[in-house]
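Exam revision sheet. Question 4 asks you to relate a sequence to its structure. Input first:
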Amino acid sequence: MSHANLYLDDVLTDFWQASQFSTGAAYAATGTPTYAVLEETTDTPILTGNCAAISGLTGAYRLQITLSAANGFEVGKCYGVRVAAVVDGVNAAAFITKFKVVFKPYGAGCLTQADITAIITQLKA
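Answer key, structure tokens:
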């Protein structure tokens, strides 16, 4: 799954399904699945957290991430989100989405203070 371009301060919401390895059937993870956000060639995650189980759907999970400067996101950078869980006794992990944080285009609404700050920062770089 891929989100081509997102804006600073957007909220990324993504979903994924855990499956039993022997049958492929939906299967709940043991414990709480986690996520890590990686930026371009940086090996250390800029953000980590827990995925939430979706009520009534076995093995279905959701994650929400605010793409703010306070969370380490920068305009012009690319990111990948990796989820990890123990499923049917097996450690499992996968990248579920990738995206780039971009400037809001003109006409997409008023620029926020965060947008203006990001533009100034980019111009000074």
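Marking note for examiners. Strands lie at 5-7, 11-17, 30-39, 47-50, 52-53, 60-66, 78-87, 90-102.
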